[in-house]
Design a protein that fits this description.
Number of domains: 2
Number of helices: 17
Bound molecules: protoporphyrin IX containing FE
Order of helices and strands: HHHHHHHHHHHEEHHHHHH
Low-confidence stretches: none
Shape: elongated
Radius of gyration: 22 Å
CATH topology of the largest domain: Methane Monooxygenase Hydroxylase, Chain G, domain 1
CATH class of the largest domain: Mainly Alpha
Helix content: 55-70%
Amino acid sequence: MNFPDYESGIPDDAVAALDPLHADAVCARLPAMNERADLSAVCTSLRTIIPTTEQVAAFDPLECLAAMRDIGILLGSVKRHGAEPVLAVPELEPVLLELGARTDLVPRDTVHHYTCWNPRGIRQRMYTGDPQETHLIDSVRNAMPRLGAAVTICARLMRLDPADPAFAESMNVVADHLQAMVTSISDVVAQVSPVYFARGLRPYFEAITVAGTEYLGPAAANMPLALVDVALWASDHGHESYDCFHRESISYSLPPWRRLYTGWRRGPSLAEVISTAIAEDDHGPVQAAAEALCRALRVLIVFRGKHVTIARRAYEEEVGLYREGSGGGTVELLARILRLTRDIAAEVGVRHQRLAANVRRSA
Ligand code: HEM
């Protein structure tokens, strides 16, 4: 099968420019239909854009991604108004399965469809049309390429000796890329009200059932940050609850990242590799590597501190409508991940300081 060329990188703007289902007009009308909670109009619109299996067969791989994006925004809307999409529109199911198979992704839209492959401006696919929705889409759109770059560098780091100066250099670049997550969440904290997220948008990200299996909505939680964690520390310093979360989350990820996860999930993590190197030679050149890892972990802590604060507000009892996030996790899980990130940063920090003292003594 001719899959999208994920290894070379998907040209996001090229996918965004496509409209294989001629859905521009329908998508432009969707926020108004949603505002009226007009389930029947959303279902009718969805029926008008569903391609036949022959049409899907004629799509190239990037058109398949764009088609899933447009079907996705409508089916999330159907679910929000109380119907199970494949029951309300039965012709949907074979098309979702076929588009999932053609793109080597789950048989529904993911966070990539909703953000990176979503056109900007007047053609942007939106559930609500509220400017706050654009801020949320942009926050992920802007951070995703930097997170992808961080994953690629982690893959290089797995092959490097921590004593090699290139290791510390690359780890510092990972920290720089992770900074994009901090920028994104800061923008969201400044521009998006927790009440809008909780009541206006979150209901569109509910799970749907396709061929008897539940699939989660296009949540930011499925960005590959957990994969970066697994590389840096979480494969051997995690917790069962976080392991469950990243095991599930990775299935919504792009195929090359799913393969990396399989290779990394049993460790050793880069934190472990650095600790072992320090234990074997406590006078040495791994100091810069440990320092750079601490820097990367501190960036994660800043992101997670801000993120858990807004998540807590959005899921407060009097604000939120759900107990769980759209990615299948809870605010308690976020707090736990933050604690785990702090713990590993403290552990690596202590090792790094001891090593630095040793290096100073022997100088
Ligand atoms: C109002 C804004 C937001 C709220 C209320 C919120 C809420 C949540 C919740 C409850 C979770 C737990 C897992 C789940 O979704 O089921 C989660 C996970 C996650 N969210 Fe958000 N989120 C928000 C914005 C963002 C933004 C803007 C980003 C990234 C740019 C982001 C990235 C993540 C990531 C990567 C996770 C996985 C857990 C982690 O790495 O700490 N979220 N979010």
